[in-house]
Amino acid sequence: MTKPPSAPTRGQLDLRGAYEHTAPDYTVEQRWDNYSDGEHETWRTLYTRQRALMDRYAAPEVVAGLDAVGADEQAIPRFDVVNDRLRPLTGWRIVAVPGLIPEEHFFAHLAARSFPVSVWIRKPHELDYLSEPDLFHDFFGHVPLLANPVFARFMQAYGVAGQKAQSHGAVGLLARVYWYSVEFGLLRTASGLRAYGAGILSSKGETVYSVESPEPNRIAFDIERVMRTDYRIDTFQRMYFVVDSFEQLFEASYGTDFGPLYDSIGMTPGIPPERLLASDRVVTRGTVAH
Ligand code: HBI
Ligand code: FE
């Protein structure tokens, strides 16, 4: 029996997933027939609500990816059916997990082009906030961009970089890169800023806030600046990083030896997300800036 991991990003919280029967790589069966009508109804509610915001607030590649993997509001997706559509597009597949898994396993999955998706879905009273990633966050937030060849290559490069970062004790710095791109990233498009981060797109409130609110800072993505920047996990973000393209993410992470950067950043204190530096290429200065 593999022991439940401590929540890698949130201390020793006990995790709600069932870790008793995981494989050595922390995967489980999805057991789609076990989902209740109530759980499918939760999916339908969340999907319908978020899908209605996508055309206005999400990067077009996200909308295209949702369609490409065949997600819809009917019911919780069957992972094996999704994989039949996803694999031919980018070679990626999704694997079922009980929830958060230890970082070394998470990175190994990404490096092998498999994305861990939690099998449990939130309860009706958790529609607007929950403390751990559930199936809706992982699927609706993360899976669509795995159908985008450039973003998929970035995700695999991130997994490889994560495996290397462990030997430098620099997983925390790389977690910031994941946070400010994969989870809370914004993309500059001809029609203005659009969200691509999973943490944004799986949250009704933050989907609108991230693109429209005057509160947060928004600055151009720079991987060193990202690695130096703290983040909060319990509120809407006060800082967003904006990329001009997913190629920019891939080029910043592929083949780069981050060792010297890890060493130069070392244990220097993180920059508070509210702070702007003279060297920042500011897209919008937030009202929180100080
Ligand atoms: N496990 N299932 C799962 N999903 C994640 O997003 C995840 C994880 N473990 C670790 C983790 N994310 C973060 O610590 C990354 O920054 C590595
Ligand atoms: Fe996530």
Structural summary, described in words:
A hairpin with a 2-residue loop joins strand 3 (186-189) and strand 4 (192-195). The protein has 290 residues and is α/β, with parallel strands linked by helices. The protein is built from twelve helices and seven strands. It is 43% helix and 10% strand. Strands 4-3-6-5-7 form a five-stranded mixed beta sheet. Helix 1 packs parallel to helix 9. It has helices at 37-57, 60-68, 79-90, 103-111, 135-142, 149-168, 171-183, 198-201, 204-212, 223-227, 246-253, 259-265, and strands spanning 93-97, 114-118, 186-189, 192-195, 217-220, 239-243, 282-284. The chain has one domain (32-289): Orthogonal Bundle (Phenylalanine Hydroxylase). Residues 1-12 have low confidence and may be disordered. Bound molecules: 7,8-dihydrobiopterin and fe (iii) ion. 7,8-dihydrobiopterin is lined by residues 8-9, 97, 100-101, 103, 106, 116, 133, 175, 178. Residues 133, 137, 141-142, 183, 198 line the site of fe (iii) ion (FE).
